[in-house]
Automatic annotation (TrEMBL):
Name the record gives this protein: Manganese transport regulator MntR
GO biological process terms, semicolon-separated: response to stress
Gene3D superfamilies in the cross-refs: Winged helix-like DNA-binding domain superfamily/Winged helix DNA-binding domain
Organism listed in the record: Isoptericola dokdonensis DS-3
Domain HTH marR-type: 16-150
CDD domains attached to this UniProt entry: HTH_ARSR
Pfam families: MarR_2
InterPro entries: ArsR-like_HTH, HTH_MarR-typ, MarR/SlyA-like, WH-like_DNA-bd_sf, WH_DNA-bd_sf
GO MF term list: DNA-binding transcription factor activity
Highest rank taxon of the organism: Bacteria
SMART domains: HTH_MARR
């Protein structure tokens, strides 16, 4: 029997290997949680829709093109997702009076209520799961995760589509 802990990257000697492992696990767990959250909002809702709903809730009147840019996906992808959300009665689209080619997207009253219940349940779950943590540690984690996301997105925006080479290539281990 091998000891799984001995195979883990050591954060002090392999910080990027350790980070990659934790991000990988976090993504997998987040996907599972996203599916549960989506089902809590609507039984027919796809897990990838929760972030869209969250963004629309925070930015009512956003446009589909803004959503596509924010999430780094194509307009057609967002349009399909919005059509599904509209079919489920969670969002409404109306013509943008400033530019009749665009549409402004908002949550419906039912969509907003369902979103708030699901978001509040996620927050409660985090509060219970991290009950032994100091609030300052939770705050620091949130700040570091925001910084991580900002820096990774900025790097991807600069390097997306380019092959890694030279200074951009990861060091060989």
């Amino acid at each position: 029997m091998h000891d799984a802990e001995s195979n883990l990257p050591d954060p002090s000697t392999d910080p990027f290997g350790a980070l990659e492992r934790e991000v990988r696990l976090l993504i997998r767990r987040a996907q599972s949680m996203a599916a549960q959250t989506a089902a809590r909002i609507h039984p027919e809702l796809n897990a990838s829709a929760y972030p869209l709903l969250a963004h629309i809730a925070k930015h009512p009147g956003t446009r589909g093109s803004d959503l596509a840019a924010h999430f780094g996906v194509g307009r057609a992808t967002v349009s399909r997702q919005l059509s599904r959300l509209e079919d489920l009665g969670l969002v409404r689209r109306r013509v943008d009076p400033a530019d009749t080619r665009g549409q402004l997207i908002t949550l419906t009253e039912d969509g907003a209520a369902r979103f708030v219940r699901a978001r509040d349940a996620r927050i409660t779950m985090l509060e219970h799961a991290l009950t032994d943590w100091e609030k300052s540690d939770v705050s620091e984690l949130a700040s570091l995760m925001r910084r991580y996301s900002t820096d990774v997105v900025a790097w991807l925006d600069t390097h997306q589509g380019r092959r890694l080479s030279g200074a951009d290539a990861p060091a060989a281990h």
